[in-house]
Design brief:
Blueprint (H helix, E strand, L loop, with lengths): L16 H18 L13 E3 L12 E7 L6 E10 L3 E2 L1 E2 L2 E2 L2 E2 L13 E7 L8 E19 L3 E2 L2 E9 L7 E4 L6 E4 L2 E4 L21 E4 L5 E10 L9 E13 L6 E9 L5 E8 L4 E9 L6 E6 L9 E6 L7 E10 L4 E10 L6 E7 L7 E8 L3 E8 L5 E9 L2 E8 L6 E8 L4 E8 L2
Antiparallel strand pairs: 1-17, 2-3, 3-9, 4-8, 5-6, 7-8, 8-17, 9-15, 9-16, 9-17, 10-11, 11-14, 11-16, 12-15, 13-14, 18-19, 19-22, 20-21, 20-23, 23-24, 25-26, 26-29, 27-28, 27-30, 30-31
């Protein structure tokens, strides 16, 4: 709804010239638009209606998030709405602060309740696009809603563009009124001007659908919608203008694929700092990724966390350095943590760090051993003090012994006569690197 017709000078904006083109051809497609009045979605899934009467919005808030149950009540989705602009002005006029849930007692932009929006640009802010986003915390389908009061006042003309999924998806637009003030081409809507509308002056009024369009995404999966709203006239000293948003909003739960791990790679830089890289698709409802590390492949600890992009429609690439040094043997796994606390291991990879360390080889023999001892062979690139630990299957350290290595090959025996038979981890720790080997002690 164009609310103020005060206009002193019209400025042409090259970035919006295409909008003037649509206005020129509007009269040619008016008949075609009229045929879309009764357009229906092809979606066959039971949808959940979002009724503004069930929710609240404090007038003037720029954003709000609502938790809405799906049809059947088996699950819910968080719906976030945000309004913003880079233009200078206020979201208020005529003693009304917006956005707000409209109604008969104040400015009402359509035949039912919706999110009413009035923006009053400052001088030289005539085009001043406004961005209205609708985001879901998981993709939905069968998404439909109405936008109301797309009309003109004098030479000022409302126009808007609707896109979804960062421009990857576009809806069908249908004109709702029998005597409309609005025309549509693909995902664009624009005011037709004189002599459209029930009054023949191109203007729509409260509690009528002359300037209303239906936005229909049918069976497409959608996780975000952006409405870009312009006043195409670009007045030198523009007045307030308004729009009704997300009336008769409805959607259904989408049939979603699980996250798809496209690749997972590990490596290290010239300073032997390990790096993990992965790529995914179909991301949604992920709280964070955890990169877990182990020197033996059994005992893993979280070494890094990464915030997901949660983009279902794009490929998502990640690269994370771990704040640790490489060991000769290194195990990395990628773990997905979901919002409800569930955990899933997505991938496991090993990486040798032998080039980063002074201990080039570590061998244990005989293995398994039936004697009261076993031998250790270590080849070291330098003189080095180490500590050897034996750890049982319960994780308890049952033996700890320091040794001094010489550069080259080193041999020594480790006594086992006081250990019960079983499988043990032998851990060699230099203070900067850890190597682990298994040994089986038999009776």
């Amino acid at each position: 709804m164009v609310i103020n017709s005060n206009m002193k000078l019209r400025h042409l904006n090259p970035t919006l010239l295409e909008l003037d083109y649509w206005l020129i051809v509007a009269s040619l497609i008016l008949a075609f638009s009229a045929n879309l009045v009764f357009g229906q979605s092809n979606c066959s899934i039971d949808s959940m209606a979002f009724d503004w009467a069930d929710y609240s919005w404090t007038s003037g808030d720029s954003a709000n998030t609502y938790r809405v149950p799906f049809a059947g009540g088996s699950d819910s989705v968080d719906v976030a709405i945000q309004v913003s602009t880079e233009a200078i002005g206020t979201f208020a006029d005529f003693d009304v602060q917006t956005p707000y849930i409209d109604g008969d007692s104040i400015w009402n932009f359509g035949t039912g309740l919706d999110l009413g929006l009035i923006f009053n640009p400052d001088t030289n802010q005539g085009f001043s696009p406004i961005y209205i986003t609708l985001k879901f915390d998981q993709p939905v389908t069968c998404l439909e809603f109405e936008i109301s009061d797309i009309d003109v006042s004098g030479s000022r003309k409302d126009s808007l563009v609707v896109i979804a999924n960062d421009g990857l998806t576009t809806p069908a637009l249908y004109v709702m009124g029998d005597t409309p003030t609005v025309g549509v081409i693909e995902h664009r809507a624009f005011a037709l001007g004189f002599p459209s509308g029930p009054m023949g002056n191109g203007s729509a009024y409260s509690n009528e659908d002359a300037g209303t369009i239906k936005v229909d995404f049918a069976n497409d999966l959608v996780d975000s919608v952006t409405v870009i709203y312009y006043e195409a006239g670009g007045a030198f000293d523009p007045g307030g203008r308004g729009l009704g948003l997300f009336g008769n909003l409805s959607f259904a739960q989408g049939a979603l694929l699980p996250v798809d791990l496209l690749s997972f790679d590990v490596g290290h830089d010239e300073d032997c700092i390990p790096m993990v890289q992965w790529e995914t698709a179909n991301e949604y409802n992920i709280d964070y990724y955890s990169i877990e590390y182990s020197y033996d492949g059994l005992n893993f600890v979280e070494s890094a966390k990464e915030v997901p992009r949660n983009s279902y429609f794009d490929k998502n690439q990640y690269s994370v350095y771990l704040n640790r040094k490489m060991n000769p043997d290194n195990y990395f796994r990628l773990v997905k943590k979901e919002m409800d606390g569930r955990k899933e291991i997505l991938a496991l990879k090993t990486l040798s760090g032998s080039l980063c360390h002074t201990l080039s080889t570590v061998n244990i023999y005989p293995n398994p051993t039936f004697k009261k001892y076993f031998y250790v062979e270590i080849e070291s690139k330098a003189d080095k003090a180490i500590q050897i630990q034996m750890i049982n299957q319960a994780g308890a350290v049952v033996m700890r012994q320091p040794y001094s290595l010489k550069s080259g090959r080193n041999w020594f025996a480790i006594q086992t006569k006081y250990l019960v038979p079983g499988i043990y981890h032998v851990r060699f720790d230099t203070g900067k690197e850890i190597i682990s080997r298994k040994v089986s002690i038999m009776e």
